[in-house]
Design brief:
It contains 29 helices and 15 strands. It is α/β, with parallel strands linked by helices. Helix 5 links the parallel strand 4 and strand 5.
Length: about 750
């Protein structure tokens, strides 16, 4: 059972500097009610109080804000906090609370400041949403001989203005600027999942204020992003503090939309079955968000929309209604407080970093929580299309200089797809993305991959069957809503921000403008192509149905010679056998067990993978091979014995990929055995008696495709032209018809 917070006391830190641990812990208890620091908090606080730069990497809910709030109390002066969280819109959210208590939106600067003031800490924020009177009052306090403000929250756009930089220089000249804290520091890196160009301008802080320590904080940064942040902010010999990304209190699960009867009903049932908890639901599009809100309201869950499509006054009204417990659900674009127990993604996120940060909104108070992701095949295709389209536009506007970024975005998204479509531990996939080594015992069945492995494999097999069926049938429905959504006469993007956000407020954060525009351009382009092809597709479908009726009337099967690009060839299998052979050899050496038949065991395991996913295509087959390789890396001797105990050197482990024998091979086989089938003899005689051009023994006539196969074969390449049949092929076709 978690200990309750100690009673908070509103005691000011005084005018003298406090650096010892005992004094800092007293401040922590007095103002925040905690008995001691967690993780790397104390080390970060000590570093910045001593004047040293610090890069602090803590998971969501790890208490990053304490690293600059305590120093603001421990040392006279002002701590400047740069945050992107005014107007930041990572995705459309649906916030659900079945029981409303006293709940804050700490990601909104205004609410952070309000919460700090309630704890006896003088804090202020500057943004475009404030009245002129409020701004004037703050500036008067900053210009006074002894400012009362301890924490000042601003946006990166405000930092870039000459007027505010001049104000900072004056405060610094008076010896009052103690620390610069940059929250969500990963936004400065173009390699990060949430790059914001406005953050790049923060490098000017080091030029203008070289002796002020900088504290960079983030919850999501892979090694490459960490390096980019440190270099971009010009941090000098910073103290690097990294905590584990593992959120042990969160249970991870993926639910497959294509296997559910009704995903809306499933979500409603999930929210109701979770009891009296708070939940966040992330949505991809405004239309989906509104549709979902309407559905939840219909099922008795109070709901109100909050996204880029509504004006500022309505947003404020929604937040006020939430704070006063008038509504239970709000569509929002902010991080949430510590009461969240469930985070649902109604659509697949575009990167693992983004997913980790968003799912990490749950359980910030370390209590058990859940992350549920609803994954759909159409969602995946839609996101792939959007990312490609948005990055292509960025590449064109910058002369192709963003090609590397485009590949990075698609690569990041593939990791997210692997998280959903792969078997095995989901927690391990998350942590390995951030470069952590994960012991096998870490998860302890705290994800559906470890808790229900057999059920997950069954779901993936069903999903693969559905995906293969849709691939054969052609196009899938990618865009679900109209691109002509307007609010107040203005064209709105389907994603984060208003298209005219810069003109509305140069201090509001807009995420990737190109990415936001990408869905609009992609949907318009897809709509034009769909209208042009509608008539052609209708005619083709009519002819295909006629062909099907013809073969049914003739009581014969339609010939099939269509090649599948996703088919697993013998070359693919041989490469997998080699990979598994190396893994078995390493396992044998690691366990000191030379009695393992390496090649035979590898063949057995490859055959196992092929039998399970051979019909599903290369993607699932390779995923199963990779899963087997990971299993070999951690398997014990007993595990190997249980799985490979019946394998002997003579076991027939290879299942050959079926291939069609050519006419020449059939004839040669008949000659070798000294027998010839009557049908073959009759066909040969008939062919000999039929006048026509002489055929050599090596001649192999191509198969004649059916109409639908002919059409589908030419679909991928619209520039290719059908070559007319030569005389021999035409004659052979006439013979076949007769």
């Amino acid at each position: 059972m978690k200990k309750p917070l100690l009673p908070a006391k509103k005691v000011c830190g005084g005018n003298k500097q406090i650096t010892d641990r005992e004094g800092l812990v007293k401040l922590l208890r007095w103002h925040f009610g905690h008995s001691d620091f967690r993780g790397k908090q104390f080390e970060a606080i000590q570093a910045v109080l001593s004047g040293r730069d610090c890069f602090c990497l803590m998971p969501t809910g790890g208490g990053k804000s304490m690293c600059y709030q305590i120093p603001a109390l421990a040392k006279p002066g002002i701590v400047l906090v740069v945050s992107p969280l005014i107007g930041a819109m990572p995705l459309f959210l649906l916030f659900v609370s079945l029981v409303i208590g006293c709940f804050l939106f700490p990601a909104l600067m205004e609410n952070q400041v309000t919460a700090l003031k309630e704890k006896g800490i003088t804090a202020e924020f500057l943004s475009s949403t404030q009245t002129t009177h409020a701004k004037t009052k703050i500036h008067e306090d900053l210009d006074s001989g002894k400012p009362s403000t301890r924490l000042l929250y601003v946006t990166p756009e405000l930092i870039a203005t000459p007027g505010f930089m001049s104000k900072l220089n004056k405060i610094h000249a008076r010896g009052l600027l103690n620390i610069i804290a940059i929250d969500e520091a990963h936004c400065i890196s173009s390699w990060g999942h949430d790059f914001r160009p406005s953050y790049r301008k923060l490098s000017s802080l080091r030029n203008h204020l070289p002796d002020v320590p900088i504290l960079a904080l983030t919850a999501t940064a892979v090694p490459k992003v960490q390096k980019d942040v440190i270099e971009s902010l010009c941090l000098e010999s910073p103290l690097l503090l990294k905590s584990s990304f593992n959120r042990s209190n969160i249970y991870y699960e993926v639910r497959y939309k294509d296997l559910l009867d009704n995903v809306f009903n499933d979500l409603s049932a999930l929210l109701k079955s979770s009891g009296d908890v708070c939940a966040i639901v992330y949505c991809l599009e405004r239309a989906t968000c509104d549709e979902l809100a309407a559905h939840l309201s219909k099922h008795g869950i109070s709901c109100a929309a909050y996204h880029a499509g509504i004006n500022n006054n309505l947003r404020s009204s929604v937040l006020d209604d939430w704070m006063s417990s008038k509504i239970q659900v709000v569509v929002a674009t902010v991080a949430f407080g510590k009461d969240v127990r469930l985070v649902c993604h109604f659509n697949i996120p575009k990167s693992m970093e983004g997913f980790y940060q968003e799912s990490g909104r749950a359980g910030r108070d370390q209590l058990p929580s859940k992350s549920i992701l609803y994954y759909g095949i159409d969602d995946r295709k839609r996101m792939e299309f959007i990312i490609s389209n948005a990055e292509n536009k960025k590449g064109q506007s910058s002369g192709g200089s963003r090609e590397g970024s485009s590949k990075k975005s698609l690569s990041d998204f593939k990791l997210m797809v692997e998280y959903c479509e792969g078997s095995g531990c989901r927690r391990k996939k998350i942590l390995e993305n951030f470069g952590e080594e994960v012991p096998p015992s870490l998860c302890k069945k705290s994800c559906d991959g470890c808790k229900h492995p057999n059920q997950l494999v069954q779901y993936l097999e069903e999903l693969a069957t559905i995906a293969a069926g849709r691939q054969r049938s052609g196009l899938s429905r990618i865009f679900l809503s109209s691109s002509n959504d307007k609010v107040g006469g203005e064209q709105m993007s389907e994603f984060w921000n208003r298209d005219d956000e810069v003109s509305c407020s140069d201090e509001d954060i807009s995420d990737s403008d190109a990415f936001a525009d990408g869905i609009e351009n992609a949907k318009r382009e897809a709509g034009c192509k769909a209208s042009r092809r509608a008539g052609v597709n209708a005619k083709i479908e009519l002819l295909e149905r006629a062909e099907e009726r013809y073969y049914r009337n003739q009581n014969c099967d339609k010939p099939s010679h269509k090649s599948d690009k996703n088919a697993i060839t013998e070359a693919h299998r041989e490469a997998s056998r080699k990979r598994l052979t190396d893994s078995v050899k390493q396992a044998s050496q690691r366990l000191g067990n030379p009695s393992i038949e390496i090649e035979t065991s590898a063949n057995f395991l490859e055959n196992e993978c092929f039998n399970k996913y051979g019909k599903s295509g290369k993607t699932f087959y390779y995923s199963q091979v990779a899963s087997t390789v990971r299993w070999l890396a951690t398997a014990t001797s007993s595990d190997l014995t249980n799985r490979l105990g019946n394998v002997t050197p003579t076991s027939p482990c290879r299942s050959k990929v079926p291939t069609e024998a050519s006419p020449k091979e059939t004839v040669d086989e008949g000659n070798r055995t000294g027998t010839t089938s009557p049908e073959l003899h009759d066909n040969t005689a008939a062919a000999a008696s039929t006048p026509g051009p002489p055929a050599s023994a090596s001649t192999k006539l191509p198969p004649i495709p059916s109409f639908s196969e002919f059409v589908n074969r030419n679909k991928p390449n619209h520039n290719s032209r059908t070559r007319p049949l030569d005389d021999s092929q035409s004659q052979n076709k006439r013979q076949k018809k007769t």
